[in-house]
Write a structure and sequence with these properties.
Blueprint: H1 31-45, H2 59-66, H3 71-78, H4 82-86, H5 102-108, H6 112-120, H7 125-128
Helix pairs in contact: 2-3
């Protein structure tokens, strides 16, 4: 199992990639590996999409719209041009909201309780120390 970085010390996790190479957590996954994994997942789920690695790109814009963002805010934040916004074909598939049981949440994210306790006491490194810009 992969080691969870120490979230109380930013220098321990700032370089960690979410989509990382198999050998090094600080090295990004290659485009080809990302593409192949996405195609494999879509195939397994019986999904068909013209977009592969960017299939979810529009979801942020849809969520922003549902949260009340204006069209100009969505365009600016998403770097959408006018034609992309006009042809957005916004739609949402409603999904049931299921909150996993506490034991499963703790199994998946065992570090969160310790981090949140430190954060609330303002002893987390990046909360307790002023940042120089």
């Amino acid at each position: 199992m992969e080691t969870i970085p120490d979230f109380l010390m930013p220098e321990k996790w700032y370089d960690v990639k979410v989509l990382k190479s198999a050998k090094d957590a600080a090295t990004a996954m290659t485009y080809r590996a990302h593409y192949d994994a996405t195609v494999k997942a879509f195939t397994a789920l019986g999904m068909h999409s013209k977009a592969k690695t960017h299939a979810a790109r529009g979801s942020g814009a849809r969520m922003a719209e549902l949260a009340g963002a204006t069209e100009s805010q969505i365009r600016r934040l998403g770097r959408w041009n006018t034609s992309a916004m006009e042809d957005r074909r916004t739609f949402v598939l409603e999904r049931a909201v299921h909150v996993p049981p506490d034991h499963l949440q703790h199994e998946v994210f065992p570090f969160v309780e310790n981090y949140m306790a430190a954060y609330m006491k303002k002893s987390a490194y990046h909360v307790a120390k002023p940042v120089d810009f």
